[in-house]
Amino acid sequence: MNRTNQLKKLNQLLNNLPKNIFLTGVSTDVGKTYVMKLIIKEFQKNGINVAAYKPISSGHSEFDNKSDVNQILSALTNTQHYKDINTYTFTMPVSPHLASQIESNPIDVSKIDEKLENLNNKYECVIIEGAGGWKVPYSSEGFISDWVTKNKFPVILVVDNKLGCINHALLSVESIVSSGNCLIGWFMNHTSEVDEIIADENIKFLEKHISAKFLGVIKFNQE
Ligand SMILES: Nc1ncnc2c1ncn2[C@@H]1O[C@H](COP(=O)(O)OP(=O)(O)OP(=O)(O)O)[C@@H](O)[C@H]1O
Ligand SMILES: C[C@H](N)[C@H](N)CCCCCC(=O)O
Ligand SMILES: [Mg+2]
Q1: Rounded mean pLDDT of 139-163?
Q2: Mean pLDDT for the stretch of residues 131-155
Q3: Is position 54 annotated as part of the catalytic site?
Q4: Nearby residues of 221 by Cβ (< 8 Å), 6 or more positions away
Q5: Residue 137, SS3?
Q6: pLDDT of residue 185
Q7: The whole model's pTM is what?
Q8: Given ligand 1 and candidates 27, 29, 66, 190, which is best to mutate, with the most ligand atoms within 8 Å of its CB?
Q9: Is residue 99 a part of any domain in this protein?
Q10: Looking at the 3D structure of the chain, how many domains does it have?
């Protein structure tokens, strides 16, 4: 892939930095946490007092180094601890609504809001990672996307460059935008080595069909 890293495009945000940025993906395992770490590092390099928030995490315990929260902590230079970054941790690797049910720990959105408010009082910008894709439930009726819409958080979408990504990306964009959310832009991430011709065509096609800004390519194993 001969496209250069365009993470620097994020710098355009710095003049008009949102208080919160919600990072979503076209599905689970598409590299939201991976990309989030790169964004955090870029913001820190630019002197932004940035915090992270992963309100709902499923699939890891607090003591697992591979958990999203511990991964994110490893990129941060601030003084955040696990419990500042996370409100609900479920060990079951399933949808939050189910994990919460199985582990008898119902999700109370006001607790999520409370922690975010603390972060907003202390930091210039909070990058929030969702769980899975855009429309993931945290209870039998509540969706994380509705929480984002209610709070008017600007959104960044991560797409994993693989077969199926065109459909997943366009459906995600349609849903994000049609519920009135501001889509700042999207990244094309590479969770594996892929055929360059196909990968480039996916990017070209999506650039043409997504009106939000293309924020850049994240290569496989990009540091
Ligand atoms: N650009 C990349 N290069 C190498 N590995 C990557 C890249 N992006 C993601 N990965 C790997 O792919 C896996 C899934 O990525 P990640 O955990 O960031 O996904 P996610 O979208 O945050 O998933 P979840 O929905 O569980 O939060 C991880 O093992 C991660 O290290
Ligand atoms: C366990 C996984 N890695 C994520 N934390 C949760 C993904 C939820 C996906 C729900 C769904 O869309 O079916
Ligand atoms: Mg993640």
Answers
A1: 98
A2: 98
A3: yes
A4: none
A5: strand
A6: 96
A7: 0.97
A8: 29
A9: yes
A10: 1
